[in-house]
Amino acid sequence: MATRFIAKHGLKSNINRLTLSEGEIAIAYSDDKSEAEIYVGGNDNTPIPAAGASMKTKNQIFVQCDGDHDELKLQAAIDSAPYKSIIYPVGELCVITNANMMSGYGMTGTNNGVAIPLKGGMSLDGSMCDTIMFKNTNPAEKQYIFHLPGNAILKNVKFCEDTDTVTADTVNPAVLYAFSDSKIMHCIFYDIFGTHQFSIPTFKFGTVLFAYNDISSFNGAPANNLTNEITFGSNSVIVGNTFNDITQKEQSLGNMLVVNRSLFQNNYMGGFDNCNITLSGSVVGNIIKSFDDCSIKITGEFVANDISVVAQNTKTSFLSTTPYTIISGNVMKSISIENEYINIIECSSYAVISGNYFYVGSIPATGECALIWSTQQNIISDNIFRTGTSVKDNSDFAIIDGDGNTMVKDNLTNATSLGTFEDTCVVEGNVTGGNA
Q1: 55: which strand partners?
Q2: Cα–chain-centroid distance for residue 97?
Q3: Pairing between strand 209-211 and 426-428?
Q4: pTM of structure
Q5: ∠130-68-118 over CA atoms, to 5°?
Q6: What are the C-alpha distances in Å from 397 to residues 157, 207, 258, 318, 429?
Q7: Residue 106 CB neighbours (<10 A)
Q8: 269-317 pLDDT per residue, tens
């Protein structure tokens, strides 16, 4: 029988009075509640100590959830708990609503409250609760579900939104507002909708550690609201996360993801549709897969990333650089240009593109398009450019369309031409044709 958490807890001295069926769990505290032991039900409904389940409970608070306005129970526990306490929601399903909003600790500015406002240094650990669900019973602008002040921690939480009350047509609260020096680790957020409010992100982070989390099935940024849906402050560490199945309705009105001068490493990004993304800082070792009509603006270093299955139909670039950007050691394959006048990469100035592997699988039958468009004073060197058979049929396609003082050196391609270049470009040492 599957194990489940139930509303059975009390003093260890009374444990023999408890009837505990097979598959059920109870928490038994010492008289001073400084320690706790977990018991499981035996064949004869007798409590049996679970092996290795004793634990210190000083500053640990277990909140039994029953699916009925559980925010009230969590709020009471948080309010009475000392700083640096660990709050454990306990149960199969914890249901949070916005019917009982509170002030967030340290929050300033106008807002309509927070459902779960942690204190500084406090942790919310979801490891004893299967799922935390939010129901939008009292829609209002500038509401927040979770708020983390400085040094607070959110971990092991599996969170979703109730898709009957949170939709693409409702005003929704922000899921998470995390101040600098907070940590979010090993959490799952799924079935998420944007706030549908002007300039109110769904996930707003200061300088944080965001590690080994999963944000999936996120429908954001509708056409009538300008907002950045997921934002990270400068000097954040964003590592080992999954961002999957992400949709933005209107690119011109904001970004799905904004990373400001941070470490963005070893993340998986897949199934993005019609999204604007801004990545600045060190973008290293990520997997970027299945992007349709998306645009990524890069500042800093973009190194050793694995990019595949990119389809670009709108007349915007897939990657664009700001000055002094380095693109190096990346693998970029299965690129499909599906319309004319599209450049997959657009370099402004003083960018370096070196040591990469590119494979362009398909392009339109006619019309100008390019893999790289270089405006001025960029260096493109030591790359391998491969093209599929159909690419050779469009004479207007250029691997590199080079303007103003671009240096193109020591590249290798199986195409018959590397592209078109202005007279002020330096083009030397490149190899064309053959089986690159």
Answers
A1: 36
A2: 24
A3: unpaired
A4: 0.87
A5: 65
A6: 49, 43, 32, 16, 21
A7: 14
A8: 999 999 999 999 999 999 999 999 999 999 999 999 999 999 999 878 9
